[in-house]
Structures are given as C-alpha cells and as structure tokens.
Amino acid sequence: MSEERGARERQAGTGQDTAGEAPPGLLAHRVPDLGALELLLAVARLGSLGAAARELGITQPAASSRIRSMERQLGLALVDRSPRGSRLTETGALVTDWARRIVEAAEEFDAGAQALRVRRDSRLRVAASMTIAEYLLPRWLLALRAARPDTAVSLLAGNSTAVAERLLAGEADLGFVEGVSVPAGLDSAIVAHDRLIVVTAPGHPWSRRRRPLAAEELAATPLILREEGSGTRQVLDAALGGLARPLIELSSTTAVKAAAVGGAGPSVLSELAVGEELASRRLVRVPLEGATLTRSLRAVWPTGHPPVGPARELLGLTRSNA
C-alpha cells in the first residue's frame, strides 16, 4: 500500500495523472510564444539582435530580455552574444529549425482564418418580411453600403413565417419580421414601430363616413388581405380575435395596395406603405375604434447565435435609424 501511495505522489509531483497524460495547458508553459519564436528566426536570418529588434518593432533591451526568458523557459542556451553581433549556438540552430515549422503553421492557420472571415464578411444574406423589405430595408442597405462597400447583399423577401424558416435552415444571416410575436427558435431586437390602418378607394362608402368604423363592422366585412403567415395578417387577426374575413388574399403589400386603389374593396395596410397613395387621394384612410393595430418591427436571428460581421453592422444601423 505504501508503494502505491508513493507512486501516486510521484505522479502528482511530475504533474501527470494516472494515465501519464499532461494536465491541460502544460504544453503552453513549455513552448515559447509565437513572438519569441519569430524573434529567434529574425536573429538567425539577420545575425544581429539589434537588427532583429528593429525588424519586429521592439527595442533591443526588450529583444534581449525576450531571448533570455526563452532560454530560461527551455533550459537551453540559444544565442551567443558578442561585440561582433549575435549568432545561434548549435542548440539554437536546431531549435530555430523547429521554430520555423511552428511559425509557418501559425501563418497558415492565420491565413485560413482570415480567408473564412473575408468570405463571411464579403456577403450578407438578409431575409425580410414584405413591408420591411419594400419600405424600410432599402434605406438601411444604402447606409450599409456606405460603411461596407465591398459587402455583397442578397435579399430574400417573404412573409414572417418564411423569414423564420430561412433563418432556422441557415439560409440567411439576419431576418426582419413584423408579426405580433417572435417566432420560436429566434432571438430578436425591436428596430422600428408601425401601425396598420384601414384604407379604401375614394368611391367606397367608407370613404365618406363621419364616425369611426367599429372593430365589429371591420371584422364582418370581407377585406383585401395579405396571406396567412404574414406579419400584417397576424396583427389584424389578433386585433379582431381571428375574425378577419378575406375577400382577396395576396402575397405582397404592393399587390394588396393596387387592388385597393383599383376599388376592389377596403384593406388594412401598414401606414408605411400607403403614404404616397393617401397624399394623392388614391386611397382614403378610414378611422377605426375598438381595435389596436400597432406593432413592433423586429430584427431576428437564431437563438444563441447573435449577428456577426456585416449582419451585426446592419443591425446597428437599423437601431440607430429606428
């Protein structure tokens, strides 16, 4: 028993576990850092500690201190110093050959990581629900282009459900939705606020109303609506208790607006989308009471994976313009 205890104590004293493996991190204490190895290579190439220090942008005393520290760490004499310059010892020459391989491997590692960063930062895939894609995103992307002129942006436009699906499938880097809640599996940040309003063509009887429209009458009237799954439809259904009645269902805000302008019937649309039509009297706003049609517009991304690179910058731009 005493022999077993002695063996365990000797193993503890050498820093090894019972399997004879080095504890994590021990290698980092035995191997000099890359800066020290680069200095050693520069001394070997230039034959002077002072010249090596100048090449690496450090002082000669700092270079001497780093070499001495490396020699203490390794327990080896690496450099002979004399008034005529510095030269490697035989041991130093051998260590330098090994150091060269380490530094070259580190340079390859850095080049590969840089290539991945460039590939990531040179493109941005954005998925956005229709109202945001049509009326807000162009301004944000213009600001992003000024900040990152080399970033290529692709836009995937669809309803809020489709945006969530794209993000969760890894087909987009950042999304924007306009529904009443955050889709499952996504984190979010509010970037703007919006309000839905009831609109109709000037010839419709509602355009001449003197009293606000009641929510019950709106729910009982067939409307030109966005399709199910869109943020606009989600907000309207929530406000009317799921009672909105479709006269026509269309998959874009522009199509819904065109149908309403053409007199097909009343509609409920984002205030962002109809400013021009209201100003030119091609559409008339109908006051509404008894229903709240405000909503938050959100940037979204997969839970636990916050935006990075140009996606993060675009998110910052949307917040600053909110």
UniProtKB/TrEMBL annotation:
<keyword id="KW-0804">Transcription</keyword>
<comment type="similarity">
    <text>Belongs to the LysR transcriptional regulatory family.</text>
</comment>
<feature type="region of interest" description="Disordered">
    <location>
        <begin position="1"/>
        <end position="25"/>
    </location>
</feature>
<dbReference type="GO" id="GO:0003700">
    <property type="term" value="F:DNA-binding transcription factor activity"/>
</dbReference>
<dbReference type="GO" id="GO:0000976">
    <property type="term" value="F:transcription cis-regulatory region binding"/>
</dbReference>
<dbReference type="Pfam" id="PF00126">
    <property type="entry name" value="HTH_1"/>
</dbReference>
<dbReference type="Pfam" id="PF03466">
    <property type="entry name" value="LysR_substrate"/>
</dbReference>
<dbReference type="InterPro" id="IPR005119">
    <property type="entry name" value="LysR_subst-bd"/>
</dbReference>
<keyword id="KW-0238">DNA-binding</keyword>
<dbReference type="InterPro" id="IPR000847">
    <property type="entry name" value="LysR_HTH_N"/>
</dbReference>
<feature type="domain" description="HTH lysR-type">
    <location>
        <begin position="32"/>
        <end position="89"/>
    </location>
</feature>
<dbReference type="InterPro" id="IPR036388">
    <property type="entry name" value="WH-like_DNA-bd_sf"/>
</dbReference>
<dbReference type="InterPro" id="IPR036390">
    <property type="entry name" value="WH_DNA-bd_sf"/>
</dbReference>
<feature type="compositionally biased region" description="Basic and acidic residues">
    <location>
        <begin position="1"/>
        <end position="11"/>
    </location>
</feature>
<keyword id="KW-0805">Transcription regulation</keyword>
<protein>
    <submittedName>
        <fullName>LysR family transcriptional regulator</fullName>
    </submittedName>
</protein>
